[in-house]
Write a structure and sequence with these properties.
- The complex is a heterodimer of chains A (248) and B (476).
- Chain A is an alpha/beta fold and 248 residues long.
- Chain A contains eight helices and eight strands.
- In chain A, strands 1-2-4-3-5-6-7-8 form an eight-stranded mixed β-sheet, sandwiched between helices.
- Chain A is globular, with a radius of gyration of 17 Å.
- Chain B is of the alpha+beta class and 476 residues long.
- Chain B folds into three domains: 96 residues, no CATH class; 183 residues, Jelly Rolls; 158 residues, Jelly Rolls (Sandwich), CATH 2.60.120.230.
- Chain B has seven helices and 27 strands.
- In chain B, strands 1, 4, 10, 11, 14, 15, 21, 24 and 27 form a nine-stranded mixed β-sheet that branches.
- In chain B, β16 and β17 form a beta hairpin.
- In chain B, α5 runs antiparallel to α6.
- The interface between A and B is large, with 53 and 55 residues.
Chain lengths: 248, 476
Amino acid sequence: MKTLWLVSIVMLLFAVAPLAENREVSFRAADGFALNGTFHSVERGGPGILLLHQCNADRQIYDQLATMLNAAGYNVLTFDFRGFGGSRAGEYTDFTAQRQKIMERMARDVDSALTFLTSQSTVNNRALGVVGGSCGVNQAVQASRRHPNIRTIVLLSGGTNGEGEAHIRSSPRIPILGAASEEDTDAATAIQKIVGLSTNRDSRVEMFKDAGHAASMFSKQPDLQADIVIWFRSNLPTGGYGLPPAIK
Amino acid sequence: MPSRISVVAFAMALLLMGALVWAAAPATGQDSARVVTFHKDVLPLLQTNCQSCHRPGQIGPFSMLTYKEVRPWVKAIKTAVALRAMPPWFADPRYGHFDNDRSLKQAEIDTIVAWADSGAAEGDSKDAPVPIVWPAGGWQIQPDVTLELPPYPVPAYAVREWERIAFAAPFKEDTWVTSVEILPGVSAVVHHMCFGFQTHRPTTPYNLYEWMEVPRDEDGVMKNRDGTTRGPADGVVVTREAGSTEEKRRRGRATIVHEGTNEFCYLPGLPYEDYRPVNAGMFVPAGSDIIVSLHYTSTGLAVVDRSRVGFTVAKVPPPKKFLPQDGPEGENPPVGRRQANAELAIPPYASNHPGPPAQITFLKDVELVWFRPHAHVRGKSVQYKLTYPDGREEIVLNVPRYDFNWQLTYRTSLKIPRGSTMHVQFFYNNSTANKYNPDPGKWVYYGGQSWEEMGTPNMGFLVDRDADDEGFVRER
């Protein structure tokens, strides 16, 4: 049975690649702060995926993954949290020095990003996914708690809080892909704990050795990005027949 | 202490034995020492088996034309071929023989796996085969004639019934169509798109969508469980001009009638129909109409579908004529079919529920060349079992894992004598283990929507080009 599911997953990966393009975007957070990102759209329409970067990098760390997901039929939004990359301005210019202030606003910034993503004409807002790396892991879990149209999450090297754990435990319909590197001990333990709490039959962990932290693992484990695309093709289908029909 | 001569003799004997062993080693032993490379070993396989879908503008999510494009997907490709998930092919290899079997040979799988496991070397580009020149415009076939369907707006939330629309066929004279490809604009919303040819009737309007209103409950399930997809022939007829959003309703019967069978279809995963390999075609008399049957499914995102149809046509009439059989229940020569669709009722959480079997009787000697089983998202498996007049039984197609997203045609050549019968059995999975089950807690009945179910054993036959269709039908 497990093999059959794997076959299904792989077959879904190999179907449907719509025309795509990407553009630089800017949208306002709840407090009016300008957040900058890159939106990869699918001309024919499809699900939307939000990529949340780790706190020792900016959105560029997802450039290749975003391109691969987009080619596989997904609208993808990457954006810089305030204080990172293109979203450094005003009182938010240095994450290290302003860590607490920035972290306190992250959840609302994620909501603003989801609002932007789902307002795009090519995005099917019944079909959303989120990837979170390191400090983005908890944000991804909390986002899925707040937004029921998030159907699957991918978590790279990080943990969540009690509220997040309770959400995972009570959400059998949300499959989770976790990944971490063994020597990244705390992150690896946290990912294993989160996925272990999931009651979805498809949730699983990929554990590597000497691969680094969160999206930095892509450079040493180049197959991980393809694995993430495969994961979404299985758990967030680009066609209409993996989703409940939209009749009302 | 051994003498110098004995040491030399021993060494020579060792060398000789080594030479004999080397000479006796099989050729594969020599090959295994050679590095498997992309250009020399893998690209030819990708060209033959993968690039038709995995190239820009096609359905594959990534291109397989170059090493650079393929490299990030090495592990995924290895997994796909090792599991025999790609290329997609679902026929149980223990039964039947299929001309269009797309599955890789074990040696081909071994090559790809060896390449991936040995570091996926690129090799020398001088070893690469000549690139294939693919048809332009997104086509898999190179059409001689094309037809663009009117833009069709699919709302974000709605139940769309099966609709018909008629056009004049794009052929000015008698024509033999030898292959057809339907290219949906937005494949995610197309449940099916089929058509057949029919002599024009003065009452058949062009560019008008027409469908019967089907009474449904709040979950979109047909209230009338009579084993049809359209409900009663007399009812509320809805029409909409192409390009307009205004719908008109009247009581009565549909005016766009198609008495034949659908001759060509787009279904999820079905690439195209091609009768050239069996030297056959479909005859389209001059002045025919195309009657298109459309079924769209809303996904939550409003889109506009712009579908195209491409045809290749024969310069000289082919020796054989293709006859599809996907029509309604009853006698429809060369076969008669009985199937109690009204009795289809799949209980909640049932994981392997048998549907009402189809019992097909062959009314004359035929050459069966084509199977295309059709069920919806709860379809799990299907088996075609032939019983010859002498009582001998033969499983001619077994699909142990039916997949709605890959509705393939299985091409074969079976000479079936008159009096034979075919028993076709579908099974359904309405459990939580079916990932694509929209609601395991619901009873599921026969109907045309993807959340309802069907179990249609479509088949196709070859007859001589000059076989008289009228005479054929007179066997009724």
